[in-house]
Amino acid sequence: MNDPTGHFDTETDAVYAGASASDDPFRFDEAVARVFPDMIRRSVPGYTTIVPMIGVIAARFARPDTALYDLGCSLGAVSLAMRHSVKAHGARIVAVDNAASMIERCRHYIALDDGQLPVALQCADIRDIDYQPASVVALNFTLQFLPPGDRDTLLERLCRTLTPGGALVLSEKVAFPDAAEQSLLEELHLDFKRAQGYSEMEISRKRNALEEVLIPESIATHRQRLEAAGFEQVTLWHQSLNFVSILAIAPEATA
Ligand code: GEK
């Protein structure tokens, strides 16, 4: 089966299906990288809309001779979406992931792709790299894997990295302060996974594995952090159950 951007041939995710499936915390290892496009499409409602829309958003905000960052790029779905929509002269994509198995496969997909924009791959922690001036930064379901204590510093750095009026797209699984809303949207997410063919055993094993690895926060917390980091316009542009995407715009230069 193909992914929404049509770039990946996808093996079916059965990581938590077999009797021998591990009870260890979730890791982005070779087994996950192999099935990743199928896994994320069947686990994250809205993913197949969000990825091509990041291409659309990037096309509007990309500026000539700047970097476009895809942070926590996995197999490069966002990089490929940006590569096929951005026309800004001299723009270049920098795709970063700290999982070697992801970067290796990402390299393969980028090589197969015929887009014109250069794509540089970095196997590194997004907290440690030196950022070049950028007009677009995508954190598509990546910030949620950082310890909450590290999130403020990263977003402050990213706001400083962005050129005036540059855009950050932040997609996250979120939690709701209202218990009834939280439980309704969480239950509907489980229904979504059932409808995608995951068994009760797979759903509960994956849930346990992600506990303490993926830490969702509320929309209000994300909004406050983005504003405190210096972003000026913070807009929720997509929500599908408990998965959202926010567009945050860096301030224009002052005269
Ligand atoms: C997509 N954006 O397809 N530094 C670098 N990479 C990291 C770090 C870190 N500190 N922590 C996690 N990652 C992609 C999907 S997946 C989301 C992103 C998911 C990487 C991790 O290795 C993985 O590849 C990615 O962030 C998160 O649009 O699996 O739910």
UniProtKB/TrEMBL annotation:
Its EC number is 2.1.3.-. One of its GO terms (molecular function) is carboxyl- or carbamoyltransferase activity. It catalyses: prephenate + S-adenosyl-L-methionine = carboxy-S-adenosyl-L-methionine + 3-phenylpyruvate + H2O. The keyword Phosphoprotein does not apply. Keywords: S-adenosyl-L-methionine, Transferase. S-adenosyl-L-methionine binds at Y47, G72, C73, S74, D97, N98, D125, I126, N140, R207. Coiled coil: none annotated. GO terms for biological process: tRNA wobble uridine modification. Pfam families: Methyltransf_25 (PF13649). Residues 70-166 form the Methyltransferase domain. HAMAP family: Cx_SAM_synthase. Belongs to the class I-like SAM-binding methyltransferase superfamily. Cx-SAM synthase family. Catalyzes the conversion of S-adenosyl-L-methionine (SAM) to carboxy-S-adenosyl-L-methionine (Cx-SAM). Homodimer. This is Carboxy-S-adenosyl-L-methionine synthase. It comes from Halovibrio salipaludis.
